[in-house]
Amino acid sequence: xxxxxxxxxxxxxxxxxxxxxxxxxxxxxxxxxxxxxxxxxxxxxxxxxxxxxxxxxxxxxxxxxxxxxxxxxxxxxxxxxxxxxxxxxxxxxxxxxxxxxxxxxxxxxxxxxxxxxxxxxxxxxxxxxxxxxxxxxxxxxxxxxxxxxxxxxxxxxxxxxxxxxxxxxxxxxxxxxxxxxxxxxxxxxxxxxxxxxxxxxxxxxxxxxxxxxxxxxxxxxxxxxxxxxxxxxxxxxxxxxxxxxxxxxxxxxxxxxxxxxxxxxxxxxxxxxxxxxxxxxxxxxxxxxxxxxxxxxxxxxxxxxxxxxxxxxxxxxxxxxxxxxxxxxxxxxxxxxxxxxxxxxxxxxxxxxxxxxxxxxxxxxxxxxxxxxxxxxxxxxxxxxxxxxxxxxxxxxxxxxxxxxxxxxxxxxxxxxxxxxxxxxxxxx
Length: 429
Description:
Strand order of the largest sheet: 2-1-3-4-5-6
Number of helices: 14
Low-confidence stretches: none
Distance between the termini: 43 Å
Mean pLDDT: 95
Helix content: 25-40%
CATH topology of the largest domain: pyruvate-formate lyase- activating enzyme
Largest sheet: 6 strands, parallel
Radius of gyration: 22 Å
Shape: globular
CATH class of the largest domain: Alpha Beta
Structural class: alpha/beta
Number of domains: 3
Number of strands: 19
CATH superfamily of the largest domain: tm_1862 like domain
């Protein structure tokens, strides 16, 4: 069988695609890179919010149109859309040959031979995958340390989709990282829905610090990047470990979602504004050059103009290097669904205003960056990222001269405007 893969959504979903694609390849099947070459299209969907659901359904329609025209024989759908809506997917798209759950990826070859809906319970634990390939650039990779979530934020569907929080045993994480290093990976991004809760289910308390200490001992390690930390679980010990080594990028993706206490309470975020500020201040003290990425939701039910103005002031004050802004999406099954909703027009206006606020922040950051020396990683001969930029989600930079793809080196910022920055490599030999 020749299959064409469409993988949607976050890096956590991408790792599922990497695992079942590798399993198919190991069984003698062939991955092709245009849908017209394929016998079967496999769509690994996202179903987190309304826009992701729409994108997934559009891709399903695209694949089914090719099937109708005879360009492909079969279409299979898996991923978060299936986990969230289950049989509804098959009812809405009866022409789809196979609808299968995330848990079926271990038996994907046999699953794809079947027709209809194959829904197995989510796995009760994570483990070192038997097969895994890279669907990213060879020098960078995602390492999923846990799946699911127990935080139960009022707006979030993840617990219904991915289930309870499940950590991968530490020995399996270390072994997977070792295999990545042996395969030439220079940048390993540690991912989970809540990376800072790693190990709580297996060891009775968070073990991210201990995991990092073990990973740092691996021979040939390039750099680690920590994604998706929760503010009330980012400890001073983790910050000090980060500051003590150049093997961990001084970068943290720390989704905050809001800063106004009334909104945080309704969101069920398990922390308040004072805690968030203490965490951020601690990070900037312990790791002075730390780069922080965050996300904010505007227009959450009950958000007042005062709440929003507090958020704007906070963004100006803390000057995040990278920031995502999302209008609140009303999702069935969540606690926030029944709350008093903010008008769509207001949500849209506030999102645009916060984006504009952040653009002025970036202007100030760029003024300070110009002429400084940063660590960079080359994604190609003439482009890449700085340590401040995670793959796929943050900005890219260009280099003044060609460098070796995958190399990590110091570079001087020659110019910076918006998220477009040019760097002069200094020691990339």
